[in-house]
Fold this protein.
Amino acid sequence: MIKKMAAGNWKMNGMLDSLKEIERLQAAHSNSKIDIVICPPAPLLLPARKKAPDLLIGAQDCHQEVSGAHTGDLSASLLKDIGAAAVIIGHSERRQAHAESSALIKEKATAALNAGLTAIICIGETLEQRQAEETLPVLKDQLEKSLPETATAQNTVVAYEPVWAIGTGLVAEPAQIGEAHRFCRAQITKQLGAKAANMRLLYGGSVKAANAAEIFKIDCVDGALVGGASLRFEDFSPIIEALETA
Ligand code: PGA
């Protein structure tokens, strides 16, 4: 049985006061049968950990080196040390705005796994690539180049996030999500073998309470990576409930 995962990516949103949203999630979902991961901005990781002992806390990026002269960067081992359980790697906003290549993402994911963190590795096609019918080759390339050989179903999660669906209100059609997820499942198994056959596959891109249940019915969807709708308890809690009952 794959344990499902609802992960909330706060991006560069939230203040100290936003910890109250995490407290409410902790109160409402402390006995959840799914993994609930909150990924707030880095300065909120430690207080979030303290407020939500039964939820998982995740970072939004880490450096590929263990330590050193990298001003402004965060090591995976420090994230682990302060109680993070996971880290998002290779989000399309970092691939685009920070020119992160799949090769770099693989190095970062390797650092995360070596530190004992779960790597949530993001992949997804742009609108131009979808329109050019390159979606599956793009996903294959990103999976081949971004996933460490040491990735398993236990230590790694893949988030399929079509770039055109992120923060736009445009959700991929169920058939598009199903096709991408089935393809990823087959590709990951081919690439890494049986140890990765059950790797969790999250969908991300404008997931909301109103569309969550429909998305969670789709074959090979094991949860969601949620941006905007993870910021407030009122929005995120119903998505968690939809996954708990899916
Ligand atoms: P969104 O973001 O839910 O706001 O579309 C998803 C993501 O970027 O992970």
